[in-house]
Amino acid sequence: MTIQEQYELLEKTVRGYNPAADFAQIRAAFEFADKAHDGQKRKSGEPYIIHPLAVAQIVAEELKLDSESIEAALLHDVIEDTPATHEEVARLFSPTIADLVEGVSKLTRIQYATKEDEQMENLRKMLIAMSKDIRVILIKISDRLHNMRTMEYQSPAKQKQKSLETMEIYAPIAHRLGMQRMKWELEDLSLKYLDPVGYEEIVSKLSVKQKEHDAFMQRTQEQIDSRLNDMGIQHIVYGRVKHPYSIYRKMFNQNKNLGEIFDLFAFRVVVENVGDCYNVLGVIHDIYKPILGRFKDYIGTPKPNGYQSLHTTVMGSDGIPFEVQIRTREMHEIAEYGVAAHWKYKQNGQGAGTEGKYEWVRRLLENQEGADAEDYIHSLKVDMFSDEVFVFTPNGDVQNLPAGATPIDFAYAIHSAVGNRMVGAKVNNRIVTLDHVLKNGDIVEIMTSKNAKGPSRDWMKIAKSSEARSKIRQWFKKERRDENIVNGRSSFEAELKHCGITMREVTDPEVLPTLLKKVSFASLEEMYAAIGYGGFSAQKAVSRMQGELQRAARQRQAEQQALEAAAEPKPKEEPHAAAPKHVKSEQGIIVEGLDNCLVKFSKCCTPVPGDDIVGFITRGYGVSVHRADCPNASLEKRMAPDQSGRWLKVTWGTDTNESYPTILEAVCKDRVNLLLDISAALSTTNTFVLGVNTRSTEDGFAICRLEVRVRDGSQLTALMNKLNQVSGVLKVTRPAG
Ligand code: MN
């Protein structure tokens, strides 16, 4: 076939499915490419234009794509391999076509090395993501198919490399896009070069049996055909032998020889509607014996890539099992041509795209049910409506990053040590700023230095991935503790100032432990460090502390008065001082020179009226009243420099309370009924008992701790005398300290 004839075949093919195509432009594209590639030869020695023509033929024949795609297929190598430019193609044809050509060239430029599975999956995703227009990947797959068909002229090394790439990357993409026919051909052609012996074995065995197979298929087809005609079901039926790679995989996976492969033959019945699919299934099961467990309803539950059909395997008349696939015409088109079929429907369908570019794919996929389908929808969305970007390391490894990622994200994705030592970055060999947004297919190189200062705090705002941000935060937490403390402290102080709180209020030793509990840190320093590296915020810290600080501030006001009063000269040496100016008392206590002061009785010595007492101005909790003989109010304590000025004179007033809780301790020789007798003694004195706690010592004594309420010292003394009379009681004391 001459080049001219081949071009005419292309026009004819396009006219067959798209009579309204722009044939003038298609011819112009052909002529432009022919001229641009003039003088170039393929490895086979043929003129180069043969290749773009053949690719356009595949795009038309297999995928039935629009005029733009045909033109782009004809032009697909001109930007890469000839002096023609993007601008030129855009001007002569259209910017869209120039973009399609540029897109295909970009995919061509990517170098693949054999990688582990994860890398392969990333490469596939990257190819799809890079093909912003789905037609780019469709043309690219057609390009690859033609190159595989003509691989015999390449060197054995190149054959192997391209075949591996096809098997690992392009065939799975074709499968993912639902294009079964192209996938099979890509797989078979790859197998031919990857395992020539295995491939030959299958092909030759199949060809030996071909007559036998043909006869069997003919017979079976006629049986099905005539029964369906009898039933009046409109249909097309045809059979095929499974393609070599699918047989190869079964032989390999199941360790079987060709004769043992269960379903070497497959028949396909294409009908008009879904109802007929199930009718045909009934007919098939009536003619042949179905093999149990082999029926699958992919109409009810479509496959993840959108595939729909009924599958069943039955036993043929002469003991040969075969598979039957039953589907509607539409299901068939989608199964064979996948996404491309949808593209075609969209083109011919109602009103030219008011909807978004891939809206149709999205809707199609979203209408499908089943968990598998959902997974597919997700992966396809990720692929096509991308929130990911794929870039290369200088070694050719693919890194998968969130869209909008920067060299910072890339560096931390490689390793935190790379990120922490980064001093700069190159993208496609050019130095870029660290906030440079990476694009699909970029080759990114990170420049590091041992003397790098480490990440800057701004990086946290630039980084897109949470991985990078958390690694940066980690660094600040570990490496810059001192700096964090300084920074954390200054933002904490700024926030305090903003809220009108002084640092002294926070560091007050009476209040600080409560505040630290509120923010869950062991010390202020640790809190500063956390604020410094961003693990905690100054705003949060202050807002959590505020309640407690306000409470302390109110208290401090009262204390301030107390301190002022205490500062006045005290007639310490004269117990008979003149009656205090103020006689108002709280809980029966008169605090010298002070009204309405919060008073509490210390737990250590539980004073009762009549005891000599002394007061201590606490920070935050008013005046604490101790017995004068309490060890906590000893002279040394009263003279201690940090407490001077806080001790003050207090006296019992006349308006004391009904009763005061206090504690007694009795040391006894342990005996039967001791506690009973103590209780009896207590009851004769009309004492209100709050609690009794007795413990026996190993040497036969018992310590009895009594918490009681008494009116005053004299009632208490009477009670103690009574207890002393109980047999076995050796000593009764008022514990203190
Ligand atoms: Mn090409």
Brief synopsis:
This protein is an alpha+beta fold and 737 residues long. It is built from 31 helices and 21 strands.
Descriptive account of the structure:
- The chain has 737 residues and is α+β, with helices and mostly antiparallel strands.
- It is 51% helix and 15% strand.
- It is built from 31 helices and 21 strands.
- Strands 1, 2, 3, 4, 5 and 6 form a six-stranded mixed beta sheet that branches.
- A hairpin with a 2-residue loop joins strand 9 and strand 10 (430-432).
- The longest helix has 30 residues, at 538-567.
- The chain starts with a helix and ends with a strand.
- The model is unreliable at 345-385 and 571-583 (pLDDT under 50).
- It binds manganese (II) ion.
Topology record:
Elements: H1 3-17, H2 23-36, H3 50-61, H4 67-75, H5 78-81, H6 86-92, H7 95-109, H8 117-130, H9 134-149, H10 156-176, H11 180-194, H12 196-208, H13 210-231, E1 235-241, H14 244-254, E2 265-271, H15 274-287, E3 289-290, E4 296-297, E5 310-315, E6 321-328, H16 329-337, H17 339-348, H18 359-366, H19 371-384, E7 388-392, E8 398-402, H20 407-414, H21 416-420, E9 422-427, E10 430-432, E11 444-448, H22 459-462, H23 466-479, H24 481-498, H25 503-507, H26 512-519, H27 524-533, H28 538-567, E12 589-591, E13 599-601, E14 613-617, E15 623-627, H29 635-639, E16 647-648, E17 650-652, E18 660-669, H30 674-684, E19 688-696, E20 701-710, H31 713-725, E21 729-733
Parallel strand pairs: 2-6, 13-15
Antiparallel strand pairs: 1-2, 3-5, 4-5, 5-6, 7-8, 9-10, 9-11, 12-17, 14-15, 14-16, 18-20, 18-21, 19-20
Helix pairs in contact: 1-3, 2-4, 3-4, 3-9, 4-7, 6-7, 7-9, 8-10, 9-10, 9-11, 10-11, 11-12, 12-14, 13-15, 16-17, 20-23, 23-27, 24-27, 24-28, 26-28
Bound molecules: manganese (II) ion.
Residues 51, 76-77, 143 line the site of manganese (II) ion.
